[in-house]
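User: I'm curious whether this sequence folds into something compact or stays loose and floppy. Could you predict its structure so I can see for myself?
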Amino acid sequence: MQRYPDLTPKERENEIAKAYGAVFIYGIGGVLSNGFAHDGRAADYDDWSTPNEEGYEGLNGDILVWNPVIQSAFELSSMGIRVDKKALQRQLEIRNCPERASLAFHQMLLTDQLTESVGGGIGQSRVCMFMLKLSHIGEVQVSIWDEHKKKKLTEENIYLL
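Assistant: Here's the prediction. I'll summarize afterward.
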């Protein structure tokens, strides 16, 4: 946001990933200095509101790489510290949905029935797509495509396995 204040979130991702090849963007879900979130995140999943060691908010983030095949930033992983009681309550307020605190998972977290946790995942199909220099996820994972979609992808030189 500071480096590319006049760009949209996707344009900022593209510029930074292209410049460095790979980046980790943390705090995704929280409001930036322009008053808008970089991207959406649920209030009850990752902790995007707790101050981190760098002085910014967010204990979560995404790994993005520059994908030269599709000429775009490409998310390979999303990860982070999951919400604890304080973060859950804070983020439910920020998202204006405090009533969700009555849901089963939320109640378990708020009454110390669940432990704090971290999580994250590497998109296996995305990694394969990136490493094999393919342009569509359908080239590395099994899917069912209707005839219209098959024709469109074939016209774009994307071959389905």
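Summary: Residues 9-122 form a domain with the BirA Bifunctional Protein; domain 2 fold (CATH 3.30.930.10). The first helix runs from residue 9 to 20.
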